[in-house]
Amino acid sequence: MGVDLRDITCLFGRTPAVRDISLVVPTGEFLALVGPSGAGKTTLLRIIAGLQPGYTGHLTIGTRDVTQVPARDRNIGFVFQNYALFRHMTVADNVAFGLQVRPRARRPDRHAIAARVTELLELVQVGALAKRYPAQLSGGQRQRVALARALATEPELLLLDEPFGALDPLVRKEIRGWLRGLHDRLGLTSILVTHDQEEALEVADRIAVLRDGRLEQVGSPHDLEDAPATPFVHQFLGETVTFTAIRDHGRLRLDGAWAHVATTLPGDSDAGGGSVLLSLRPYEIGLSACAAGENGAHVVAVQRAGAFTRYRLAPTTDDQADTLEILVPAILPPLLSGARCRLDLSRARLFGTAARQATTLGMAATVPA
Ligand SMILES: Nc1ncnc2c1ncn2[C@@H]1O[C@H](COP(=O)(O)OP(=O)(O)OP(=O)(O)O)[C@@H](O)[C@H]1O
C-alpha cells in the first residue's frame, strides 16, 4: 500500500515540527527517514500512523484519503523501540492480541488465531519461544516478537521507529538484513526511522533526509551519494572533507590556506563567479608525488588504519591550523611523513552558493576545466 503525503505541516504550539512535506512512497518500497535529532522523523511517522492529531495537508494510504481516519482503521503495523511487549502475556498471547481485540464480526475464531500466531512466530524465527514471557527473551528476540505482533493483522504498511536502537551492533546488523528479506517476501511497504545512516544506506530503496522539519532530499542511496542536493545531505551521510574554491570563467581555484598547493580540481559547468564548496569523502582524495617545482601539500603524519592509510596533511610546513585527514587504500605505495604531494580533488561534489546544485565530475566533465 503506497503512501502519498501532500503539504503536511504539524505545529507544536507555534513551533513547526514538520514543515510542508510532500512525499510519495510507492507500494513495495522500503523508505528510510533520517535526520538529526529533532528533525521531525517521529512526528512524520506518527502522522502516517494516525497517532498525531493537529496537522494540516493531505494523507493518502493506498487509494484512501485517511486524513480523517483514526489509527485503528488504517491497517498499519507499527514497531517502535519503546513499544514494549505486554509483560504479563506470553509471546504467543502478545502476537494474538491484535486479532483478539478486533470487533466480533471481524475476529477470526480461536483456532484460526492460534494457527496465525504459530505461522508468524515461525516467520520471525522464534517459534520455540511461544510460551515464554518477554522478560525471558533477548533484545533481538523481543524485537522479532514485536514485529510478529505488528504483522498479525496483515498490514500492508509497516512503520518502524528506531526498532533496533536498543540492540547491540552485531545483532542489529543481522536483524536488519533479515527485516529487509521479510519486507520483500511479504510484499510490504515499509517506512523506517533510524539514526543510523549505515542502516538506512544498507536496507532502504530510498532515503528521505529531514532537517528542521523540512525534506532536504529524497533519493536512492546511490543518488544521495553521487548527487547530494546540499552539503548537509553529503555531510549527514558520512564523513566529509571540504574546501572552498572561487569560480573564475569556467575554472575553479582553491581559496584560503590551500590556494597555493598543487591540486587537480573538477571541471565546473558554471561559467559565473562566486565561491563554491567542494565536498569529498576522505577516501576520494588522491595523492601523488609532486612534479619538480610544484608546491605540494605536506605529509604531517602517516598511520595505518585497516585497509587504508590515514594521512594528515598541511598546506605548508608551518600551518598546523588547516590540516586535514584523508584515507588512501593501503595497497598503494605509502608516502612518508615529511613528503610533499599533489592532491587530486576531481571527485568532489560542488555546491554553488546560489544554485545549491551538486555536480559530480562525471556530470561536469563535458566542460573544459
Ligand atoms: N508532543 C510534543 N510537544 C511539543 N513539541 C514536540 C512534541 N513532540 C515533538 N516535539 C518537537 O518537535 C520536533 C520534532 O520532534 P521529533 O520527535 O519528530 O524529531 P525526531 O527527528 O524524531 O527526533 P529524534 O531523532 O531525537 O527522535 C522537536 O523539536 C521536538 O522537540
TrEMBL record:
Give a GO cellular-component term: ATP-binding cassette (ABC) transporter complex
Using the record's annotation, list all stretches that form the ABC transporter domain: 3-237
What processes does the entry annotate via GO biological process terms? Answer: quaternary ammonium group transport
Q: Does Translocase show up as a keyword for this record?
A: yes
Q: Which InterPro entries match?
A: AAA+_ATPase (IPR003593), ABC_SmlMolc_Importer (IPR050093), ABC_transporter-like_ATP-bd (IPR003439), ABC_transporter-like_CS (IPR017871), P-loop_NTPase (IPR027417), Sulph_transpt1 (IPR005666)
Going by the UniProt record, its keywords in alphabetical order are: ATP-binding, Nucleotide-binding, Sulfate transport, Translocase, Transport
Q: Which NCBIfam families match?
A: 3a0106s01
Q: Which PANTHER family match?
A: SPERMIDINE/PUTRESCINE IMPORT ATP-BINDING PROTEIN POTA (PTHR42781), SPERMIDINE_PUTRESCINE IMPORT ATP-BINDING PROTEIN POTA (PTHR42781:SF4)
Name of the protein described by the UniProt record: Sulfate ABC transporter ATP-binding protein
Which organism is the protein's source?
Lichenicola cladoniae
Lineage in the entry? Bacteria, Pseudomonadati, Pseudomonadota, Alphaproteobacteria, Acetobacterales
